[in-house]
């Protein structure tokens, strides 16, 4: 059950990267979106299969996504950056809480 936020973020980041590329031909958007989406996918897979470092990987992906989207959301106030910033911060907080509970 704990892997579902990572699967959601994997799909959201990948779709966002592809949409950014299609709309503006931005190769960095494609690489970043798919790259972070893959990180979230690996995290979800590790969490689901009881592998190592699943929650840590999800937190790292959340930090990467939030560090790029929060400033963009503040600067532009557009819907997509705000949504991505909020989702990445919420996902990072969720997995941080999960890790603290395990300790």
Features:
103 residues, 0% strand, globular
Structure description:
There is one protein chain. This protein is mainly α and 103 residues long. It has one domain (4-102). The chain has four helices and no strands. It has helices spanning 4-24, 27-48, 54-76, 79-102. Helix 2 packs antiparallel against helix 3. The chain starts with a helix and ends with a helix.
Annotate the secondary structure layout.
Blueprint: H1 4-24, H2 27-48, H3 54-76, H4 79-102
Q: In short, what is this structure?
A:
The chain has 103 residues and is mainly alpha-helical.
Distance between the termini: 19 Å
What is the tally of helical segments? Answer: 4
Mean pLDDT: 92
Main β-sheet: number of strands, strand sense, barrel status?
Answer: none
User: Structural class, from helix and strand content?
Assistant: mainly alpha
**SS strand fraction:** under 5%
Number of strands: 0
Radius of gyration: 13 Å
């Amino acid at each position: 059950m704990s892997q579902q936020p990572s699967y959601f973020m994997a799909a959201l980041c990948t779709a966002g990267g592809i949409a950014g590329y299609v709309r503006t031909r931005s190769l960095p958007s494609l690489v970043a979106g798919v790259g972070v989406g893959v990180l979230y996918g690996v995290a979800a897979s590790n969490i689901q299969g009881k592998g190592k470092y699943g929650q840590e990987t999800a937190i790292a992906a959340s930090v990467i996504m939030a560090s790029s989207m929060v400033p963009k959301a503040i600067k532009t106030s557009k819907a997509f950056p705000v949504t991505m910033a909020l989702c990445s911060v919420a996902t990072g907080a969720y997995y941080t809480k999960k890790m603290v509970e395990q300790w």
